[in-house]
Write a structure and sequence with these properties.
A: mainly beta, 3 helices, 11% helix, B: 8 helices
């Protein structure tokens, strides 16, 4: 059920061991070097300036199982250059590619906030591919550990009862773009925390794809993994011109799909 | 391994003398008789470390005419062994029960010191699943903190489970165990000693040390309200002093938890993200609590993840 790329990355990690670089050298990390070759080959990757791509992450996480992360681009999607895709990579995680985010013309700016699990101290990086194929990377070193091997859920009974519940909210305020938040009640189980009674690892069960459309046109298409925290949350922007319907569809690794729709009314100023 | 063996040998030697010492300048394993036959060892307000061996939670035991019930066992085998030695110094009656008030490592990792023989391990009905899911994670974290000194510390799964309420007869002395809805964790259990009117609250009550939310902050506040109505004369918190002022101590905890809920609800209503909410943490909200730096932001995170679904 998983994308072949994800499995390649898991294997890539397994083969590379855990030779993690220190805080001073983001390029030297062994996992990143293998990932870089697999994803981007020999293509040059420039250091991102703040307008092209900013990555927000806490220097030290309050809780490694729910670390807020944001990627933001100030490039206007209708301008000469804009962001098409952002890869969110967590070097120290069992499956380092946490999310691949694809943006369309309805996306507004490439601007997404989510929450991730972080297994060990290391670099978090966002790599943006622009429409002309150029690549830019922003990195942050995050001190957090144990976020993946910790079991999901403070209350498994409550989580099971709520699985698939969704919430899609659109902020009333906003300038050129509207901001929305998609929340999905889902354990997003990594399968990495062994059950000590059965001595078995639980089956991985997590959200693998998120598709958001406005008036039938794509806003955000995200391929995601179990590095995304329990009860995945995504805040994003879209071009909410006129009125219409914002629709989200989520598919998990059991191929169950969940949908949520919300009407968006035209604003008083006509935008 | 050699270091671990040396440590065990040292621990055994220390235990056979008066008490046991953690290291050169450390105090011995102190025990207070909070009520006749009701003994408590008060843990330190620290994170688990090589220096304290996980002796950071309140642990103790109750002596009946027939046998002894141990309540929580500390954060490592060494602490559990110190407690077992303290029991033997006070009585030759066997330990028939080890009661775990909840799943957290600083309360359960000494269990192995009581395993084997006829001792039953008692916990909430939800405790085995919670421990099974976390044991690997907890053991890895303990090894990170203690190194070789973590050797032998392991999770012992309870075999006597409490669905709602259970009475344990120690011979002429009865303990009443009560399970609670999800609050500090989803497996909180309290122990009431009828003979002395003392209620052992485990981590449903923190005093001095900042409460940590690992269950449901809303559930905890509701449980606090129910605890407040109980006709008890004396309580033992999971962290803090023996028999702190009651219910003032509970009220202080409820105020802190309520403050966190209010802050987070305001932030969510104002459209603040999780990151913004945690970054805006006001130290004044956690003023006076030990280890606030380590836990206040985490509590805001847990509360946000819970309350954003309201």
């Amino acid at each position: 059920m998983l994308g072949p790329l994800l499995w390649i990355l898991v294997c890539c990690f397994a083969a590379s061991g855990s030779a993690f670089a220190g805080e001073d050298d983001a390029e030297a990390n062994a996992v990143w070097r293998q990932l870089r070759a697999a994803l981007f080959g020999a293509r040059p990757i420039a250091v991102a300036d703040e307008d092209t791509l900013a990555l927000e992450a806490p220097a030290r996480a309050a809780d490694a199982a729910i670390v807020p992360i944001a990627v933001r681009s100030r490039l206007d999607p209708s301008a000469a250059h804009h962001v098409k895709t952002v890869w969110l990579v967590i070097d120290g995680n069992p499956s380092p590619v946490a999310a691949t985010l694809h943006f369309g013309l309805e996306s507004g700016r490439a601007d997404v906030e989510t929450r991730v699990r972080i297994e060990q101290y290391g670099f978090v990086r966002a790599i943006a591919e622009l429409d002309d194929g150029s690549l830019y990377m922003a990195t942050r070193f995050v001190k957090a550990s144990g976020g993946c091997s910790a079991p999901a859920g403070k209350d498994p009974a409550a989580a099971a009862a709520n699985l698939g519940r969704m919430r899609l909210k659109v902020d009333d305020a906003g300038g050129e773009w509207r901001r929305a938040q998609l929340m999905i009640s889902h354990p997003n189980t990594s399968g990495l925390a062994m059950d000590q009674i059965t001595r078995l690892y639980p089956k991985p069960h997590f959200v693998r794809q998120v598709t958001v459309q406005y008036r039938g046109r794509p806003v955000l298409v995200a391929e995601v993994g179990f590095s995304i925290s329990e009860n995945p949350s995504f805040r994003f922007m879209f071009r909410g011109e006129g009125g219409g319907e914002l629709a989200a569809e989520v598919v998990d690794t059991d191929d169950r799909s969940f949908e949520s729709r919300v009407p968006v009314t035209a604003r008083a100023d006509g935008i | 391994m050699a270091a671990a063996r040396r440590l065990m040998a040292w621990a055994c030697a220390a235990l056979s003398s008066i008490g046991f010492a953690w290291g050169g300048d450390e105090p011995p394993f102190e025990l207070v008789e909070a009520a006749p036959g009701f003994f408590v060892h008060v843990g330190r307000h620290e994170e688990t470390s090589r220096a304290n061996l996980g002796d950071i939670a309140n642990i103790g035991f109750v002596v009946g005419e027939r046998c002894v019930a141990v309540i929580d066992t500390g954060g490592s085998l060494a602490v559990g062994q110190a407690l077992a030695a303290a029991v033997r110094r006070r009585t030759d009656r066997p330990v028939c029960y080890v009661i775990n008030t909840h799943m957290h490592p600083d309360h359960v990792f000494g269990n192995a010191a009581f395993a084997g023989g006829g001792t039953r391990f008692v916990g909430a009905a939800s405790l085995p699943e919670a421990l099974a899911a976390r044991a690997g994670h907890y053991e890895a974290r303990l090894a990170d903190a203690l190194g070789d000194a973590a050797a032998g510390s392991r999770v012992v799964t309870p075999d006597l489970l409490v669905d709602d309420r259970l009475r344990l007869d120690l011979g002429g002395r009865t303990l009443v165990l009560q399970r609670w809805p999800t609050a500090h964790t989803n497996n909180d259990l309290t122990v009431f000693d009828e003979a002395s009117g003392t209620l052992w609250l485990g981590d449903l009550l923190f005093e001095e040390r900042i409460p940590s939310v690992d269950g449901s902050i809303k559930g905890w506040i509701e449980v606090d309200a129910r605890l407040r109505e109980l006709p008890v004369s004396r309580v033992v918190p999971g962290h803090g002093r023996i028999a702190p002022p009651w219910p003032a101590t509970l009220d202080a905890q409820s105020r802190y938890l309520g403050r966190v809920v209010t802050r987070v609800r305001e932030a969510i209503a104002a459209g603040k993200t999780l990151g913004e909410t945690v970054d805006a943490a006001d130290p004044a909200d956690a003023k006076g609590w030990a280890l606030a730096d380590a836990y206040h932001r985490r509590n805001l995170t847990a509360a946000y993840a819970e309350l954003e679904w309201e």
